[in-house]
Amino acid sequence: MTEAKEAAAEATPVAPLSTVLGAIQDPIRLEMVRRLSNAGVAVRCNELYEVINKSTATHHFKILREAGVIERVIVDGQIWQRLRAKDVETALPGLLASVVDNANRASDA
User: Fold this and answer.
1) What is the β-pairing status of strands 70-75 and 43-44?
2) What pLDDT was estimated at residue 109?
3) Where do the H-state alpha helices sit in the chain?
4) What is the dihedral of CA 16, 22, 24, 25, to 10 degrees?
5) How many domains are contained in the chain?
6) Domain for residue 37, yes or no?
7) In a domain, 80, yes or no
8) What is residue 14's DSSP assignment?
9) pLDDT interval class at 12 (50, 70, 90)
10) Which end of the chain is more exposed for a tag (fewer CB within 10 A), N or C?
């Protein structure tokens, strides 16, 4: 990635546990979080979904952003998504590791 700039001046705070769990309980959003976690860096939006259309993906990104799980990053005029792993870990210790580990095991099966 070249120069990256944040789309918003301040990131949304990580939501309470029930809201974050509600956001990641959907299989599509869980897969997006798993892919972002495994990548460890910002990822182009279209690399985070395959079986849904762009408008549906946008809806899922919005839910994850509002829960404070991901953030939008603009790179060379293109929108990428980045997992806010450190922020989520600070707010909800162990949650992402547990959820992503379970999702990885399920996708390997």
Assistant:
1) unpaired
2) 63
3) 17-24, 27-39, 54-66, 85-91, 95-108
4) 140
5) 1
6) yes
7) no
8) P
9) confident
10) C
Whether residue 23 is contained in a domain is answered as yes
Per-residue pLDDT at 7 exceeds 70: no
Structural domain boundaries, residue 64: 1-7+15-73
CA 104/CA 57 separation, integer angstroms:
21
pLDDT digits (tens, 9 = 90+) for 34-52: 999 999 999 999 999 988 9
Tell me if 96 is assigned to some domain: no
Q: What whole-number distance in Å separates Cα of residue 72 and Cα of residue 7? A: 6
Among candidates 70, 74, 72, which has minimal Cα distance to 85? 70
Q: What's the confidence (pLDDT) of residue 3?
A: 42
Specify burial of residue 75 (Cβ count, 10 A radius: 0-12, 13-18, 19+).
Answer: middle
- Rounding to the nearest 10 degrees, give the CA dihedral for residues 55, 61, 63, 67: -170
| Length in residues, the chain | 109
